[in-house]
Design a protein that fits this description.
This protein has 368 residues and is of the alpha+beta class. It contains 10 helices and 15 strands. It folds into 2 domains: 169 residues, no CATH class; 170 residues, Protein Transport Mog1p, Chain A (3-Layer(aba) Sandwich). Helices cover 29% and strands 26% of the residues. The strands form 3 sheets. Strands 7, 8, 9, 10, 11, 12, 13 and 14 form an 8-stranded antiparallel β-sheet that branches. Helix 7 packs across helix 10.
């Protein structure tokens, strides 16, 4: 399959949306009340999950955990996709309702105290609709109890029906909250001054650009080279992005993307260039990278998640990268974000780097 054909087919399937009729939630606030809501709180990637304890310990609960708590691939330590905090419906009150991400699970045929409390989130007519139409299983609402909040209602006639819907739509549910968190990260990254002059420099020298947040810098760039290293050095977390490109000659490059990464980092990425450092960065092979085909800005691409290390084993950490082709310029690009933050969780740093990488545009993709 040609790259262009794959990208077109993948994009069409990816953007297909199943329209779900509106279910009315009983506790929705009036339009005027929205102005008085508190600001949503909580850590990035955190979800408050509200459901009856009987279902939390059942197969339904197991599938919900499998959906929102699988381990993120390519990290040095086990970290779940989302940090899920389970709350019984009768304990869901006060400050918990200000959480940035909330999931409320309702099973209609359960009449336990917890389930009866959860059903109060819906109007009687909505409960009747859910009972009669098992194709409806979710509803997303924003700013329900706090500004900037995302609330997802999952519901079903019985546990079996809802469990099957979650299994069938696992990737869609994961993508829902991933997209929500990406929007928040994007807003936070570029709320302060964006370094647009550096982006313009990349356009002039290399015919592509990337949105560079305030606090970042160009660590290495030369218009006569095909490698650019952007860096945000912090006391506890050191984040980097590099872009490496060369002439595109064969699709074989997609078979072994780690080769192109090592090719770039062996030559350009080291710890202290002022001290003539002899160390360099390579891909860790004891835990092979996880590679998958993805749609990257409507282009066929290969996503790579894995671990990097220095050849002298003094440093290491996770990375995420994308390999794709600019057919107009005849270039193959390898764009990469990597983190150095020993002994710290790195899921959210990788999420931030992935968000920045998504702003990459070639010259031909930039609107005049």
């Amino acid at each position: 399959m040609k790259i262009s054909d794959f990208a077109s087919d993948f994009f069409i399937r990816l953007t297909t949306i199943i329209l779900i009729p509106v279910i009315v939630v009983a506790c929705g606030n009036g339009k005027g009340d929205k102005q008085l809501l508190p600001r949503a709180s909580g850590a990035s990637g955190e979800i408050i999950l509200v459901m009856d304890s009987l279902h939390w310990t059942s197969e339904l609960g197991a599938q919900i955990k499998k959906t929102f708590k699988p381990l993120v691939e390519g990290l040095p330590r086990p970290e779940p996709l989302f940090t899920v905090r389970y709350i019984r419906p009768q304990d869901f009150k006060s400050i918990l309702k200000n959480a940035r991400n909330i999931i409320v699970v309702v099973v209609l045929d359960n009449n336990s105290p917890g389930s009866r409390r959860a059903k109060q989130f819906f109007t009687p007519n909505s409960l009747k609709i859910i009972q009669e139409d098992t194709s409806r299983y979710w509803l997303s609402k924003q700013n329900e109890w706090a500004k900037g909040q995302e609330v997802l209602y999952l519901f079903g006639k019985n546990e079996t029906v809802l469990t099957n819907r979650i299994i069938e739509n696992r990737e869609k549910l994961q993508m829902h909250f991933n997209n929500i968190e990406k929007k928040r990260v994007m807003a936070s990254l570029y709320k302060a001054k964006e370094l647009k002059k550096l982006g313009d420099l990349l356009i002039r020298n290399h015919q592509f650009t990337i949105r560079i947040p305030f606090g970042w810098r160009i660590d290495f760039e030369d218009k006569d080279t095909n490698f650019i290293w952007l860096r945000n050095p912090g006391i506890s977390v050191d984040k980097s992005i590099f872009i490496y490109y060369k002439d595109y000659t064969s699709e074989d490059i997609f078979e072994y993307p780690a080769i192109m990464r090592n090719e770039a980092t062996r030559k350009y990425v080291y710890d202290d260039k002022e001290q003539n450092d002899t160390s360099y960065v390579v891909v860790e092979t004891l835990l092979p990278p996880v590679i998958q085909q993805v749609n990257f800005n409507k282009k066929y691409a290969v996503e790579v998640r894995g671990l990097w290390k220095t050849n002298n084993l003094s440093m290491g950490g996770p990375f995420i990268s994308y390999l794709f082709v600019d057919e107009k310029l005849g270039r193959v690009y390898y764009i990469d974000g990597f983190v150095y933050s020993p002994s710290k969780d790195q899921r959210e740093s990788i999420r931030e780097l992935k968000t920045i990488l998504s702003t990459f545009r070639t010259e031909s993709e930039i609107a005049p």
